[in-house]
Amino acid sequence: LNKIYSVFEDDGAARETLLYTTNAVLFYALTLTLCLALYRAAGALPALGWLVAALLAPGIQTGMKDLYWCLWVWLLPVLAGILLCAVTLRRGHSPAWTFVLVGLACLVRCMCGFEFVSTFLILAETPLVFCWAAALLRRLPRPPWVLRMVGTGVAAVGGVLAALLVWLCQGFAFFGSWQESLDNLLGAAGSRISVSDGSVRKGVTIPGVLYKYFVADATPALRLGSLSLSLGMLLALTLAAVVVVAAVLALLRRRQTLAGLAPMVLLWVLCVVAPASWLVLSKVHSDIHSHLIPVLFQYSAVPASLALLGALVAALFRAVRTRP
């Protein structure tokens, strides 16, 4: 793309600005696509909540322009999962090419770096879990969605393995030896997973890293002017809202409305677990990159929290409006 821009722009700094703009436009386009899918699945307020989070998350607003992170690529696996669900709901079956697209999305993401791979694998499954929960509420057959989740997982892992194969071949082209290429790959991967990364930085524990980002970290997850919320505050607020709304709906005997929140609650849980999984898988990498891990949460857990809050408000409104 830089070469294409150089055809009509000689100045390097100007081309860099064009690349920043391209990254931001792609991120917003994919985010709007995700919000449209959420609107069709859960309604206007959850979709609006997700979009507001993208606009108010400081890490997203800065990181979407980054030429190294390419945040729009982070959205490809979950969008591939959404497309699979949309095609399935329209046609009644899941064509093979939808699973291939899931694998390709994970391949493209991994070709930009294998960091946070567990996060993207979980998020690729999230739309299918949402549809599975919605099917349960409608008393539709469960096995098809479970089998699709398995197929999606296989396709996603296949994309990761394909990216590793490309890395291995690139290493052979550089080193001239398969063994050296394999040693390079395993060494780089081993330094980032919790079973062996103690050699990189001593004394880091999984509970310590989880506490660091869920409790101790004061980095704003959302900011509007002088007002801000940290990740821990937002998650605590969302959890409290779930409990309060569930209690109110139970008192009003709106069991169907309460049960209807299950897909959104599952989505929120998975969007929190997804980035947390990387803290477990790669505790030292997470401890070192304290500037980047908050962005990972702002990309999934934060918008999912606002989306769930929107769903809770909508559920309360429906319950009150239909009260006899």
Describe this structure in words.
This protein has 324 residues and is an all-alpha fold. 77% of the residues lie in helices and 3% in strands. The protein has helices at 2-6, 12-42, 44-56, 58-63, 71-74, 76-91, 96-111, 117-137, 143-175, 178-190, 206-216, 231-251, 255-259, 262-281, 283-288, 293-321, and strands at residues 220-224, 227-230. Strands 1-2 form a two-stranded antiparallel sheet. The N and C termini lie far apart (61 Å).
Tags for this entry?
mainly alpha, 16 helices, 2 strands, 3% strand
Helical coverage, percent range: over 70%
Low-confidence stretches: none
What composes the largest sheet? 2 strands, antiparallel
- The secondary structure category is mainly alpha
Strand content: under 5%
Strand order of the largest sheet: 1-2
The number of E-state strands comes to 2
Q: Cα-atom Rg, whole angstroms?
A: 21 Å
- The N- to C-terminal Cα distance equals 61 Å
What is the mean pLDDT?
89
List the helices and strands and how they pair.
Layout: H1 2-6, H2 12-42, H3 44-56, H4 58-63, H5 71-74, H6 76-91, H7 96-111, H8 117-137, H9 143-175, H10 178-190, H11 206-216, E1 220-224, E2 227-230, H12 231-251, H13 255-259, H14 262-281, H15 283-288, H16 293-321
Antiparallel strand pairs: 1-2
Helix pairs in contact: 2-3, 2-6, 3-16, 6-7, 6-8, 7-9, 8-9, 8-14, 9-10, 12-16, 14-16
In short:
This protein is mainly α. Helix content is 77%, strand content 3%.
